[in-house]
From TrEMBL:
One of its GO terms (cellular component) is membrane. Keywords: Membrane, Nitrate assimilation, Transmembrane, Transmembrane helix. InterPro entries: MFS (IPR011701), MFS_dom (IPR020846), MFS_trans_sf (IPR036259), NO3_transporter (IPR044772). It comes from the Bacteria. One of its GO terms (biological process) is nitrate assimilation. This is Nitrate/nitrite transporter. The chain crosses the membrane at residues 12-34, 46-65, 77-101, 107-131, 143-168, 174-194, 244-264, 276-296, 308-326, 332-355, 362-385, 397-418. Residues 242-424 form the Major facilitator superfamily (MFS) profile domain. It is a multi-pass membrane protein.
Length: 424
């Protein structure tokens, strides 16, 4: 028993801290998109692709790294992803320096795409932490624990969306990126100090045989245990229909969250003509509210069930998306943004309340598929919305929200199916 370091609370704290700083690695892209657009003369689809690049790697890397937790615990995958993100943010800083102070233009866009892709590994941390926290907590408490982990961690884009315009104004683009690089390095060090694997993985690392490690971990309070290797975890979870239904639900609201965190600064600036500071403030409002409400959503899911929570929250999201689609005034648009944030945040919590319940034999693999392919929405959606702008000019910024209306309707039907079949 004394061989195990940490408690569920400390395990949750370390994972949340690491995720917060990891997600901060990509918080720069949305607010600085307008700067890149002006400096490099980018088209709307090019801007859409640029802000989506971190979401591409951040979604796909979740799949293998989350499944890896089932074999080694979360610390090693967590730290590797943070180191990759540091390389990406360092590369972005160098490119920005060359563009601004050495007048580099040729190939700059390609390098921004490449290093943006690497920095997206900070988003991939999410699924690793989900698996890590899931093994620390009993199923009765997982809704709140996972909601707190994701909610607090997801605050990073909102907080930095608010701070970045101020930093850009006072410090400039290059210095702002250097400061964010420093944040990420500090966060990596803090996670290295505070991040702890669940008891079973600590005991296995100390050399205990699986059976003995299992027995001692149970005495420490651990309830869930990995039953598969990395590849087996991915295969078993992939064969479970519930995994793919949850992927769609998460694509809609977390993929949508990542997409809109990057898209809203451009939307507010280009559609309503707001300054970068006010656009950042409204984006931060959306991002922070979505994150905070996720904590409450986890507690609600613990009480009324994940699928019921999903049905209600997705309906709220659909109303918010429809409001943004129809909005002609900034007042209606802001109100709709708030409604959208509430629906998305609560559903994000509901989905991961359902993962351990519906795919209990391969939590890491399922969390990888759901978190990875679900977050892929952050890559897919911005370029689609960019096409609406290309086709309808300024009006396209509002028309593009029809994408979220459609996703909400489809997801409600899926959540209702889960409720009927799984009684979850």
């Amino acid at each position: 028993m004394d061989q195990v370091k940490g408690t569920p609370a400390s395990g949750l704290f370390g994972a949340t801290l690491g995720f917060f700083f990891g997600f901060a690695a990509v918080a720069l892209f949305g607010p600085t998109a307008a700067k890149f657009k002006d400096i490099l003369h980018l088209t709307p689809p090019m801007v859409g692709l640029l802000v989506a690049m971190p979401a591409l790697s951040g979604s796909l890397l979740r799949i293998p790294f989350s499944a890896w937790v089932d074999t080694t615990g979360g610390r090693k995958p967590f730290l590797i992803l943070m180191l990759i993100a540091i390389v990406g943010l360092l590369g972005l800083s160098v490119v920005i320096y060359m563009v601004m102070f050495n007048n580099l233009r040729s190939g700059a866009y390609g390098f921004l795409l490449l290093f943006g892709l690497l920095s997206g590994s900070g988003i991939a941390i999410f699924s690793v932490g989900i698996s890590q926290v899931s093994y620390w907590y009993s199923q009765k408490k997982q809704g709140f624990a996972l909601g707190a982990y994701a909610g607090v961690g997801n605050l990073a884009p909102g907080i930095f969306s608010f701070l970045l315009p101020v930093a850009l104004h006072r410090l400039g683009l290059f210095n702002s990126y250097l400061i964010w690089l420093g944040f990420l390095i500090v966060g990596t060090i803090l996670y290295y100090i505070t991040g702890k694997n669940a008891p079973y993985f600590q005991l296995r690392q100390k050399g205990l045989e699986p059976v003995k490690a299992l027995e001692q971990a149970k005495q420490s309070g651990q309830e869930l245990f990995p039953s598969k290797s990395l590849i087996e975890s991915l295969i078993v979870s992939a064969k479970n229909l519930n995994t793919w239904l949850l992927v769609i639900l998460y694509f809609t609201t977390f993929g949508g969250f990542v997409a809109l965190t990057a898209w809203f600064p451009t939307y507010w600036k280009s559609y309503f003509g707001l300054s970068l500071v006010y656009a950042g403030l409204l984006t931060a409002t959306y991002s922070i509210l979505t994150s905070i409400i996720r904590i409450l959503g986890g507690a609600v899911a613990d009480k009324i069930g994940g699928s019921t929570t999903a049905i209600i929250s997705l309906t709220v999201m659909g109303i918010g998306a429809l409001g943004l689609f129809l909005a002609k005034s900034i007042g209606i648009a802001v109100a709709s943004e708030i409604i959208l944030a509430v629906g998305m945040g609560v559903n994000n919590a509901a989905v991961f309340k359902l993962v351990p319940k519906l795919v209990s034999s391969a939590i890491g693999g399922a969390a990888g598929w759901v978190g990875g392919l679900g977050a892929f929405g952050g890559f897919v959606i911005p370029p689609i919305m960019g096409e609406f702008v290309a086709a309808y000019k300024s009006a396209g910024y509002a028309k593009g929200f029809i994408v979220f209306v459609v996703l909400a309707v489809v997801s409600i039907a899926i959540a209702y199916y889960i409720k009927l079949k799984a009684k979850a």
